[in-house]
Amino acid sequence: MATETLTLGKALNTGLRRALENDPKVVIMGEDVGKLGGVFRITDGLQKDFGDQRVIDTPLAESGIIGTAVGLAIRGYRPVCEIQFDGFVYPAYDQIVSQVAKMHYRSQGKVRIPMVIRIPYGGGIGAVEHHSESPEAYFAHTAGLKVVTCANPQDAYVMIQQAIASDDPIVFLEPKRRYWEKGPVDLEAPLSEAYPLHSARVVRPGTAATVLAYGPMVRVALDAATAAAEDGRELEVIDLRTLSPLDLTAAYESVKRTGRCVVVHEAPGNLGMGSEIAARITEECFYSLEAPVLRVTGFDTPYPASRVEEEYLPDLDRVLDAVDRAFGW
Amino acid sequence: MATETLTLGKALNTGLRRALENDPKVVIMGEDVGKLGGVFRITDGLQKDFGDQRVIDTPLAESGIIGTAVGLAIRGYRPVCEIQFDGFVYPAYDQIVSQVAKMHYRSQGKVRIPMVIRIPYGGGIGAVEHHSESPEAYFAHTAGLKVVTCANPQDAYVMIQQAIASDDPIVFLEPKRRYWEKGPVDLEAPLSEAYPLHSARVVRPGTAATVLAYGPMVRVALDAATAAAEDGRELEVIDLRTLSPLDLTAAYESVKRTGRCVVVHEAPGNLGMGSEIAARITEECFYSLEAPVLRVTGFDTPYPASRVEEEYLPDLDRVLDAVDRAFGW
Amino acid sequence: MAKGDPGVPTRGRRAAPRSKQAASAAAGDPELVQLLTAEGERIESATGPDGTEYRVDFTDEEYRGLYRDLVLVRKLDAEATALQRQGELGLWASLLGQEAAQVGSGRALRTQDMAFPTYREHGVLYCRGIDPIMPLGLFRGVDQGGWDPNEFKFNMYTIVIGAQTLHATGYAMGVAIDGKTGTDDGEAVIAYFGDGATSQGDVNEAFVWASVFNAPLVFFCQNNQYAISEPLERQTRVPLYRRAGGYGFPGVRVDGNDVLATYAVTRHALDNARLGQGPSLIEAYTYRMGAHTTSDDPTRYRIASEVEAWQAKDPIARMKAFLTKQQIADESFFTEIDEQARTESVHLRERVLNMPNPEPVTMFDHVYPHGSPELDVQRAQFTKYMESFEGSAH
Amino acid sequence: MAKGDPGVPTRGRRAAPRSKQAASAAAGDPELVQLLTAEGERIESATGPDGTEYRVDFTDEEYRGLYRDLVLVRKLDAEATALQRQGELGLWASLLGQEAAQVGSGRALRTQDMAFPTYREHGVLYCRGIDPIMPLGLFRGVDQGGWDPNEFKFNMYTIVIGAQTLHATGYAMGVAIDGKTGTDDGEAVIAYFGDGATSQGDVNEAFVWASVFNAPLVFFCQNNQYAISEPLERQTRVPLYRRAGGYGFPGVRVDGNDVLATYAVTRHALDNARLGQGPSLIEAYTYRMGAHTTSDDPTRYRIASEVEAWQAKDPIARMKAFLTKQQIADESFFTEIDEQARTESVHLRERVLNMPNPEPVTMFDHVYPHGSPELDVQRAQFTKYMESFEGSAH
Ligand SMILES: Cc1ncc(C[n+]2csc(CCOP(=O)(O)OP(=O)(O)O)c2C)c(N)n1
Ligand SMILES: Cc1ncc(C[n+]2csc(CCOP(=O)(O)OP(=O)(O)O)c2C)c(N)n1
Ligand SMILES: [Mg+2]
Ligand SMILES: [Mg+2]
User: Fold this and answer.
1) Which parts of the sequence belong to the Dehydrogenase E1 component domain (chains C, D) (predicted)?
2) C132 lies in some domain
3) Percent of chain C with pLDDT over 90
4) Spatial distance between the Cα atoms of B116 and B113, rounded to a whole number of angstroms
5) pTM score, two decimals?
6) Mean pLDDT (whole number) for A198-223
């Protein structure tokens, strides 16, 4: 087993490299993905090694990126599009929701759009406006798209390859504040044996309450669980990984045991993933719940100036506060 | 009291006329809003009477409509933008979520964008693709926007004027399949005394269960209540009217009495308004609920071909089925 | 194409001055490429704004074929309009008046070329060999488009204005990456759109991309003078074909009611594309003779005299006059074609009336290539729910 | 502007041939409008692509004033870069190299004119009389822009590429509806954007709208040759100013490192706009001497020799050479300006260091003009929650 310690960013880079190697139809495209290797260097070195027809530097136009990628997909390619920052995906929104998401349905399965839309998302990096958004609900609400997000280097490496290999159009959300976090990555395990893409995973078993998180918030949830354990409360933490379709099998099982559930995400709470998860868990675990599912989320404001983002973003304390509230209900 | 019987469409037309009369800064803009009077004739006759600088026929470009309206708003105008159909708002999505919604926040209140974005929405009219969508969740999830929808001619007449008079940017959703439904409209009651814009309203009191609906589904909910009453079950029906901010005061009070709640909307259920409403009601009414809040919604597919839309859309039977399930929980 | 008959000018004969003059006379626009006047006079050749000489060289058989195409697509289209009036279709977007623009460009495509239509290219669809019933499913509401884009090299209809121009550009980029340009039998791509569409961001982005990547693509704009009720002046204050220059590729305006000129200009642009010379823009200057769709009422926004003026430029009438004058066809031929059109339209009507409604449960099909467990649950619940209404429920 | 001094060519003298030649020599582009060569030679007048003769007529005082502006904005910008390096700003988008494009256009604006910037127009902001600390709050992360757009006639910075060009167009439409064009003291609007932005749908839609509504608007594109790492060739294969022709309004390329030519061209375009002659496009041909932002590493994508070549075209050096040669200014003036710039930058630095962090609860402010009961609840909960951490909680 060839386990290496990689940052999440480097794990993505390595996964993309594998995908380019394994399938000549895979093309990467986006603003600054070539020579620069992307503003986060996730595509670093790939244009040099695979050429500028596999790793395509594009004009500055997001609708153009996604729209031409649709055409490339119809031509038989498997485009992997990089959107530079979360807040810049909206010019492409029409192409994503009306074309990417619907082409397969419209054509009764005759046209496939095996596209991956990579988006660095979320806050916590002290950035200016539009660089810290969490747009996952906009995509998860859209039938025809699948939405996944990774939380650690191993998943990053595997999931990006799985997403590229899938024929479904997938919005692949990358927790940008975790790009520099390191972890072990098994570079040799065959993809065919990997943990399935559209499955959640229990990342810390526990008994007292269930904490659901994804992407950048998994670390926060785990930290909260460590802190809670010191107080004698064992939290079960589930990394959701797939936001559409949601995989709540493990969550249902867990909540039926614990009776309490907290969902954590950075996106504003109103109409966020937490709402859907709360609604489903309440339906499924109605008689097991000791308290309503509580949501720890960004507030219902635009993402604020970075000097107050620490207070805007859910952190360990707010998670523990919610757990306390669930116990005090 | 000058009560007239008007269709919902004519009520909107009359409300728009009033707004143009009352404030010279109000301008209407959109594709085909002038000579044609809009594809649904909601702006019929207005260009003729107010001129082509008050009722502006625009190029075919939705981002252009909203983006230039932002500029007009900065200049001191109050633009009322028509998006021709729900499915064509997405090219303007970036301008709406990153500019319209955020300009006031960004400028610390120095810039106001008193804009109304009118969108005929929803299905049931036998239309082709992109003409039957319910995009409300995309907007309600966006902080900085307000979202309202009317369900009857009286509300249509009043709410459109209130929305135009408001300095908040408002997405105004018009239930297109109800454009031709008639009802009494009081044309003389002063706006200042009207029912507040951002408030839900109980439209049928009841005791057995609470049904929440908005826009095109209010009629379905009322029909269901009539049918249920024949079976001896009195449903309380609430017309939500405002989707952001949500006004659930009456709903909480109702659910605490009835113990059962069903939410109805056309949009796909996943991450729909129903999720948020279910999550909030569960938090607020946890100990009163005899069953989880149940959602009767469009399915999580793209809007299907019109010959099957009847089965896609919630109807009386599906609402009653959900009520039955709530009772059988 | 084989050589023309003696009565028709053939390749190689120069007639530039006459062409300019004739085109100018016909449309009041010296830059309009025209090979067949509204009166059915053949012009030997016409010069485009960049000096390209356009001409065609058809056999009698081919001329008659083009005429047949024009008549057939008009008749089938009229049948669809009638079907809509009788409630058999939810909507119809008629091509009336645009037959030449569509047949001319559609016939200029080679088998290997790929087309990206809007919702109005029934004539191009016909030229691609697709059963004309196909788009009727979409407008009837039984499906959202039934043909296989890759089989016929004709993509799905696109309703969102302009979106398909980016798809076409990406596809053409793929053609180039595949190395399928640079030779006589290279592949080319054509993107259809309207005058209204030229205002959309997507279309202009497509211009940027096609230019930067030198994509083998022909932008084919049918300027039918209206976007629903909005006249051309709401989209531009200069002729649309000039837009191309700003992006660094050639643009040409052709008489879109002239099937010969449209053919010549499109063929030339496609051949340039397939040879690796990059994109170009064709503005086919034509007129939407009918309503925008069957839901529209054009009397609210345009005057009858304008329609009448264009009536005089009818694409079929001028072709008929030409065939008659040149004795390429006679009354019996015209009668035969009318008869064939009638038969095909009756056949179309019968098949539409027999188009079954889809099973409601099929709305859950094809949302994802790999399916979704959530949807499987919804489908199962739906099936059970529907069964609960059946007398003989399982 | 008052009359120029004897050493400087004044209005009315024709020197068209010389201008063409000089411009050509300087930039290898005969279409580049230039009034001051890289070596500091004055060119009397220059001809634009549509035949417009551009010239300026400044007093010595005014020449010195332009020089002062250039030096000051460069120095303040350098200070901001230094502050970022020291962790006092989260990010900085430097204008280094683009001083002349910004000061030239900024000074061409009249009080009543409205500007719509990107995130890099610190020089224009300065010309509008806004305290240069204002944009630093945004980049420090204490706010999202602090000035009042209507007070200074300079809109908020816009980060989403191209979005502001539509706002500018709408604003200009409003100016026209207000009847504020058609006279010498009419209002004009200017929209700033970069070369990269020209690929965005929004910018091209702005071209459509401005043209169709004949908006009193100047599109001012600073072509600094890069969009982050992407060189100009990724956005266009022809000079950007030509884009305008496709939409039916004039375009001109000016030497953006020449403050005089930029002034002249912008003033002319603004005056045309205010007189009701509609929109135009200016491409200010310049170079981004520094990184895209402080987060960027340009050595990954461009070579040192290219930067050096542009160093020789420095906007300030050429102005200094001109002032010296023409004896409009001497060493003591230059020293005085440097000293003033130093003092102002020290002052800026001190004020930045003292910029307070916002109270966290202010994040709930200004979401809606009329507030929201939901947010009131969240704010109250947040306040209570924060208080729970205080030793002396209420
Ligand atoms: C993005 C978008 N906005 C609006 C519409 C509604 N709509 C359908 S057709 C049409 C006019 C199109 O005009 P044009 O491009 O000239 O094509 P034509 O219909 O004349 O062939 C409009 C506005 C749409 N389909 N898509
Ligand atoms: C819609 C959008 N996409 C991407 C970005 C990220 N981004 C910021 S600046 C920039 C390059 C802009 O280039 P240009 O327009 O030439 O302006 P310059 O920075 O050179 O002044 C990019 C891609 C953005 N801000 N907005
Ligand atoms: Mg048209
Ligand atoms: Mg640039």
Assistant:
1) 70-355
2) yes
3) 90
4) 9
5) 0.96
6) 98
Domain CATH number, residue C128: 3.40.50.970
Whose C-alpha lies nearest to ligand 1, atom 21?
C194
C214 located within any domain: yes
**C347 and C371 both lie in a single domain:** no
| D242 contacts in chain C (CB < 8 Å) | 245-246, 248
Atom of ligand 1 nearest to the CA of C200: 1
* Whether D196 contacts C197, CB under 8 Å: no
What kind of fold does domain B3-191 have according to CATH?
Rossmann fold (3.40.50)
Residues D383, D283 within the same domain: no
For the residues of A60-123, what is the DSSP string, one character each?
Answer: S-HHHHHHHHHHHHHTT-EEEEEPSSGGGSGGGHHIIIIIITTHHHHTTTS-----EEEEEE--
Q: Does A105 touch chain C (CB under 8 A)?
A: yes
Considering the domain architecture, whether residues D191 and D57 belong to the same structural domain is answered as yes
Amino acid, single-letter form, for residue A275 = S
User: Which ligand 1 atom lies nearest to the CA of residue C118?
Assistant: 21
- pLDDT less than 70: residues of chain D: 1-30, 391-394
Q: Verify whether ligand 2 is closer than 6 Å to residue D295 (CB atom).
A: no
Question: Per-residue pLDDT tens for C344-385?
Answer: 999 999 999 999 999 999 999 999 999 999 999 999 999 999
A201-327: CATH architecture:
3-Layer(aba) Sandwich (3.40)
ipTM: 0.97
**Are residues A95 and C163, on separate chains, in Cβ contact within 8 Å?**
yes
From D234, D301, D342, D351, the catalytic residue: D301
CA distance B106 to chain D (A): 5
Residue C166: pLDDT band with limits 50, 70, 90: very high
Q: Which residue of B has its CA nearest to D200?
A: B63
Same domain, D188 and D289: yes
Q: Computed over its alpha carbons, how large is the radius of gyration of chain A?
A: 19
Q: Where are the domains of chain B?
A: 3-191, 201-327
Q: Ligand 2 pocket, D197 CB below 6 A?
A: yes
| Test mutation, A26, A28, A63, A68, chain C, max C CBs within 10 A | A68
Element (H, E) at C27: helix C16-27
- Per-residue pLDDT reduced to its tens digit, B83-122: 999 999 999 999 999 999 999 999 999 999 999 999 999 9
d(CA C31, CA C261): 13
Residue D13 domain flag: no
Give the tens place of pLDDT for each residue, C46-82.
999 999 999 999 999 999 999 999 999 999 999 999 9
Give pLDDT < 50 ranges for chain B.
none
Min Cα–Cα distance to chain D from A2, Å: 31
Which structural domain range is residue C223 located in? 18-353
Question: Is ligand 2 within 6 A of the CB of residue A64?
Answer: no
Does ligand 2 have an atom closer than 6 angstroms to the CB of D142? no
Q: Looking at the structure, do residues C389 and C252 belong to the same domain, yes or no? A: no
